[in-house]
Amino acid sequence: MSQSYRVAILGATGAVGTELLSLLEECRFPLADLKLLASPRSAGQTLMFQGESLTVEAVGDRAFDNIDIVLASAGGSTSKAWADRIVAAGAVMIDNSSAFRMHPTVPLVVPEVNPGAAAEHSGIIANPNCTTILMNVAVYPLHRVQPVQRIIAATYQSASGAGARAMEEVRLQSQAILDGKAPVPEVLPYPLAFNLFPHNSPMTETGYCEEEMKMVNETRKIFSEPSLRISATCVRVPVLRAHSEAINLEFAAPFSPDQAREILSQAPGVKLVEDWQANYFPMPMDATGRDEVLVGRIRQDISHPNGLELWICGDQIRKGAALNAVQIAELLIEKDWLRPAERAIATPQS
């Protein structure tokens, strides 16, 4: 990475945006220039980077001129609104929203799983949903050895998945309950402190909510397995940061827990956490602030001879969002895929 690159963070003041800023500093990303962009409401705020105070600018028509990479984390409507302008300016948008994930010409990339897909971009690369990323990092190393036939997942999703305001709401609700007062939900539809509820994303005609269908459809796309059988139940739980998932895998033949441990102990982006005597396995508190997906409690499914059970935890803001985006940017630079030759730049319509 001897060359330096001009990067813009779109949605710089949000939870993922500030994490992106921190990660660019931590990994010493080769920056020639860094531009922080947000809505006019947030313009004028200052954020620290490498000991300097950077001023957040309002996104506008000329904001992406002379930019190489846009790390977008301002929501689907914002990504759709600015995608044409970003691509026309010659930048690559790595988009953390759901706006383009399932578009057939937009790569959906988890660098530990399908890095080669990033080479096929036409100006936009989509970052998968947080629960999808965490599950895929843990499951794909096993899938490579013996293709998985079916995945059943139950997620335990922290407040961080709904943003910084939701995290603060849980703090305030917790204090209110401890003070004997009624918790007031404003960001989330129901009180989350000392409570949990099925994920509140819109329901689909299948009876699954959109969050659950993201895990299904995105995993099929990332694995290049359009018929892979997947079912998910997504639940919001009173944890501030880091998601957990209980994953049941069915294979065509038995897959021993010891073999799975051996594979996962060497898998990129995975850390094995198991202490059976102490009954100590991955927890959100341990995953918070970490790059790896923590995997443990690997065991034979006693209800099926070809079944395997996993328990995982991962930082939703970090690997589930910001880190995955930065890793994609690093991949584009390492492989010289920022502007592949003979590729028509065209913004897909959602």
TrEMBL record:
Indicate the segments forming the Semialdehyde dehydrogenase NAD-binding domain, all copies.
Answer: 6-121
The metabolic or biological pathway listed in the UniProt record of this protein is: Amino-acid biosynthesis; L-methionine biosynthesis via de novo pathway; L-homoserine from L-aspartate: step 2/3; Amino-acid biosynthesis; L-lysine biosynthesis via DAP pathway; (S)-tetrahydrodipicolinate from L-aspartate: step 2/4; Amino-acid biosynthesis; L-threonine biosynthesis; L-threonine from L-aspartate: step 2/5
Annotated GO MF terms: aspartate-semialdehyde dehydrogenase activity; NAD binding; NADP binding; protein dimerization activity
InterPro entries reported for this sequence: Asp_semialdehyde_DH, Asp_semialdehyde_DH_beta, NAD(P)-bd_dom_sf, Semialdehyde_DH_NAD-bd, Semialdhyde_DH_dimer_dom
Broad class of enzyme this protein falls into: oxidoreductase
Q: Does the keyword Amino-acid biosynthesis apply?
A: yes
A single BP term in Gene Ontology: lysine biosynthetic process via diaminopimelate
Could you list this entry's UniProt keywords, alphabetically sorted. Answer: Amino-acid biosynthesis, Diaminopimelate biosynthesis, Lysine biosynthesis, Methionine biosynthesis, NADP, Oxidoreductase, Threonine biosynthesis
Residues that hold substrate according to the record:
Q157, E210, R236
Chain sites annotated for binding NADP(+) = T13, G14, A15, V16, R41, S42, S160, G161, Q316
Q: State its Enzyme Commission number(s).
A: 1.2.1.11
**Binding of phosphate, residues:** R101
Reaction catalyzed: L-aspartate 4-semialdehyde + phosphate + NADP(+) = 4-phospho-L-aspartate + NADPH + H(+)
Q: In the UniProt record, does the keyword Lipoprotein occur?
A: no
Give the family this protein belongs to, as stated in its UniProt record.
Belongs to the aspartate-semialdehyde dehydrogenase family.
What does it do? Answer: Catalyzes the NADPH-dependent formation of L-aspartate-semialdehyde (L-ASA) by the reductive dephosphorylation of L-aspartyl-4-phosphate.
Q: What is this protein called?
A: Aspartate-semialdehyde dehydrogenase
